[in-house]
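quick one: adenosine-5'-diphosphate bound model?
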Amino acid sequence: MKIGILTSGGDAPGMNAAIRSAVRQAGALDIEVYGIWRGYQGLVDQDWRPLTSRSVANILQRGGTMLNTARCQAFRLPAVRTQVAKDLRDAGIDGLVVIGGDGSFTGAGLLFEEHGVPCIGIPGTIDNDLPGTDRTLGFDTALNTAIDAVDRIRDTAISHDRVFLVEVMGRRSGMIAVHTAVACGAEAVLYPESGEDTYEALVAQLRAGWERGKRSSIVIVAEGDKNGSAYAVGDRLTRDYHLDLRVVVLGHIQRGGSPTANDRILGSLWGAEAIKLLAAGEKGVYLGMKAGEMVHVPFARVHDPRPAPPAELTNLLPVLAR
Ligand code: ADP
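yep, here:
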C-alpha cells in the first residue's frame, strides 16, 4: 500500500508531529508514504517523493510544516481534480492524509466524493474553528504565544496606567481571542461572533473598571471583529474619549514557534490514526477530539456552522474583570 500525505492552507504548529507520526506508523505497517509538497499544488504538479523514518527525524519540535503549504486555486476546478485522481491512480497511491483546515477538507471531500480517492483529514489550523472537534493542531501553541505576549504588554500597561488594544488572529473565529482574554485576565474582548454593536458595551466595561479603581486595561480584539481592526477601535476610543491608548497587532508570531506538549501529542495521535484508518479501508472522514475521545467526522460536516467560543468563557470574562 502507498499513502500520500500533504499539508494545506495555513500552517500550524503540530503539523510536523502529525507528519512524523504518520510516516512512522506507516513504516510499522509496511506501508509506503509519499510526501506531497505545497499542499494541493503538489498534487497538481505531481511533486511527491518517498518519506522514510529518517526523513522525518528532528521535526517533532519544529513549527511550520516540512512539506510546505500553499493555496492552490486550480484544485477548485473539477477538471483539475479529475486529472489529479488519475495521476494518483497511475502512481499507485491508494489514499491521502490531508492536514489542514476547512478549505483543505472541502477539497479532500470533493476528491473523495467525485473520484473515490480515500482521504483522511487531520485538523491543522490555529483557529480551532472546525465543526465536530474540540481542538485543532496549532491552537494550543498559538494561544500560549499570545498569552506570553499579552503578559509582557500587561507589565507596561500597568506601569503607565494605559489602555492597550491587542489584536490576535481570528478572521472568522473568536476562539483565540476569547481564550487569550480569559487566560490573561483581559478587561474585555471583541470577536466576530459577538455581532456588530459591541462598541458601547466595551466603553461601558472600561468605564466600570475605571470606577472600580482600575487604571490600566487590556482589550483583546480578534482580527475579524465587526468593529474593524484594533486600530479602528483604538482610533474611535481616542476620538471619543481622548484616551492615551496603544495598539499592538500580534500577527504572524502566533503561527510560528515550537509546538506545545498538547499539540505534539495530538499530532502524534492523529498522524498514526490516519494511517491505521486508511489501512483498514476507512475513507472520507477527518479526525477530531470530543470530550477527550478520538472521533471520526464525515468531510461534509465542514460546512456545518463553525463552533463559537464557549459561552462559559464569554460569560465568565466580565466577572473576572471586576
Ligand atoms: P484552510 O484549509 O486552512 O482552511 P484554505 O481555505 O486556503 O485553507 O484552503 C486550502 C486549499 O484547499 C485551497 O488553496 C484549495 O486548494 C483547497 N480548497 C479550498 N476550498 C476549496 C473548494 N471549495 N473546492 C476545492 N478545493 C478547495
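The chain has ten helices and eleven strands.
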